Amino acid sequence: MSKGEIIVPIKEPIRSKDLDPEFKYKIANTYLGKDLKACFKCGACSGGCPVGIVTEVYKPREVIGKTILGMKEDVLTGDQIWLCATCYTCEDRCPQHVNITDVILALRNIAFRQGNAPKALVEQAKNMIETGWIQPPTASMDKRREELGLSRLPKKAVEDLQKIVKATGFYDLLYQKEETEEEK
Amino acid sequence: MVKYALYTGCTIPYRLNAYEASTRKVMEHLGVELVDLDQVNCCGLYVEPANKLAYLALSGRILALAEEQNLDILALCGGCTSALAKANAYLKEHEDERNAVNEVLADFDMGFEGKIRVVNSVNSFVEDIGLKELKKQITKPFNGLKLAAHYGCHLLKPSEVLQFEDPEAPKSVDDLCSITGAMMVDYRDKYDCCGAPVIATEQSLAVKIINNKLKNISHAGANAIVTVCPYCELMFDLMQLEADEVYGNGKKYGLPAILHTQLLGLSMGMDTEEVGLSLNKVNAEKIVEFLSE
Predict the structure, then answer these.
(1) Whether this model's pTM surpasses 0.80
(2) Residue in chain B nearest A152 by alpha carbon
């Protein structure tokens, strides 16, 4: 996603044939989305959202509402869920104790599996796996550290880290996805 | 004596060395022992949106490393603090995930037990060291410096997990900084997010968010901003230049944004080099003019 390319969702009326009534159960049964269905759409989440203040495109109540309705495609392929700042203000304020931020993270987990994550995030995840750092370190960093009396950049346990991402299935998810895309 | 396993994460060692340097010096000055964890990995924050179990296992490994030494973790970054504290709480409560993570960690002869705390530098100053003790070390207080505090979301929220203080009316950073003699200034939407996490998805929105914050702080008459998290610091300092460019119409905010550990170090008598003040992008040297002789 780059400047000016945000897809504005909901243009057409919502039709029941486009909805997946099971979607809310799927989310409610995974991750921390257990209280998702308790939402009574008061809007406290959108009212306090720091991103919602600066754009019409992202409102947490809309994402929760769509998830409950079963607008699976819209939620998982759109840009909305990736605009959350994960500041947890909505989650903290929700009178119904819906774990809104965690629901969004659960939605992101599914969208990521489907290959709908922003490129920057995929890049950072790959950097982390390959170098141990979310951005590859450069020689100038050690020089600056030395000037401040700090030791060289600490060594990261890259081997262990790679074992972890492989054992948890994340490695395959990240790299096989790419191969499939290249094959296309 | 207070002693921690120090976890510096990714962003601080390579992008915000001033935070690491000033923290180490201030803690040394206070007699706090910091043990560097060997062979750490990323906290997994960046993996959380992609794969929950991978995140829990990455954070779990760091928690297990500190558990081996029986030390609480001192995390400096808001992201790391939140990732580690959330994983700590989550793994304690959820047996299935804990077993899954321990199965992964068993490969390295490690295991998560859930017997340590994760604290941020502000928790440490306020709760573990104590402001009374800290105040004794302030030998060169600021005089007339009007300071706007930015708390950082992940220091406070989700509050149910972090259990530090009321996220709607926090006081810790203001209380901490006021012992240096600085006058703390309130401003509109003070507790709102800095916008940093949105950079990766849509930078223009993040710049809009930080511009609103800078506008409110400027309006409140503050001379400078004080931060806790490296991402917030980069937003208020580095991205201030971007906000000037996009929204300034030729004018610049010129608001120095310094870390709370730099502020403490200076008021303890350290020189600007020791706390890495020259690394700030917006000139922060003018803060020194407010120090008493």
Answers:
(1) yes
(2) B13
